[in-house]
Write a structure and sequence with these properties.
12% strand, five-stranded parallel sheet, Rossmann fold, alpha/beta, three-stranded antiparallel sheet
Length: 368
Amino acid sequence: MRIFLYNILILLILLVLIDPFFKKEGEREKHGSISRTVSLREFPPDTDIYKTPPDYLVENADNLEQKACRIRTNKQGFIIGENTVNKEPADIIFFGGSTTECLYVDEDKRFPYLVGEQLGLTVFNGGKGGSNTIHSTINLLTKGIPLEPKMAIYMHNVNDLVALTKAGGYWDAPETRAIIKEQKKPSNRLGKRISNVFKSLKDLLIPNIYKKLKTIKNRKNNKAEVDEWQQYRNREVEIDLPAIEEKFDQAISGFVELARANNIEPVLMTQFNRFHPEDRYTNRSYSANSNNQQIPYLTFCTYYKAFNEKIRAIAEREKILLIDLDVQIPPNNTYIYDSVHLNEKGSELVANTIVKSLQNIFTDRSGE
């Protein structure tokens, strides 16, 4: 067995050494050193994994149970549940960030899935942590439209607000949230090529062990979570509320028009939250996060409120259905375990609230 493994290793090294000789003439001059892709921000298609809230999150949360929650996706990368496996087309697709994703809620309690169960419809969850309106518009265009949904339900606020206040727009963003991803092509230098071989073997043979060791290392170095916006913190970005509201308006309008152009009914939702001056927990946790140094808590609350108002104004202007979750979901730890994320009880309440707004629409359609 040992001799066999040695032979495989030698063969791999030989292939690495001779590969450059098969390069087409002039290829180096024709092709750049960077490849670019548009980010879909999704769990990979056909995922089936379990996610447990890490210790630091549970310790700092305000009513979050530490348990493993299943994440399954269909072949388009939308989050599904037991009764939406292998189902399409979709009746409804929800688009949003982590507040729609509901990562740490059991899959049969996530509000998009519950809405489908209560209405007897096929509903997919297009939420992904860190996504903003532009990401959701891209997902609607590339993944949503082919499923011919009757309705696309939108909920964004905090991720757009963070992007617009830290970078001044949607297009300049950290790598973790970038709309266009740039990746350097592998170097042709021998040492780098051999290094890439061993990295690939690591990813192929021991990916889970490597991730665990990396988690332990970060914990020892007190790196509880990635500081995504570190390089933006010292930038001097002039925050003009009317200007960033206008960019938010343009982004939402793009989502709405794309849906309508493809005979999909858009629905807007304000975002439930605990961004209130009197909420001591949210104030304390916001102030303790170095990512939030640019804007005082009370100012952020004002901006956040303005963004929800903008969603209401667009719904009225475009004459489309608004589900005002900001008003209808109580802003406390019974339903929201930090500033904006739902626990199980909150997810069930949100589902019931959405169903009340939609049931007449789908009842009328079923009778046509």
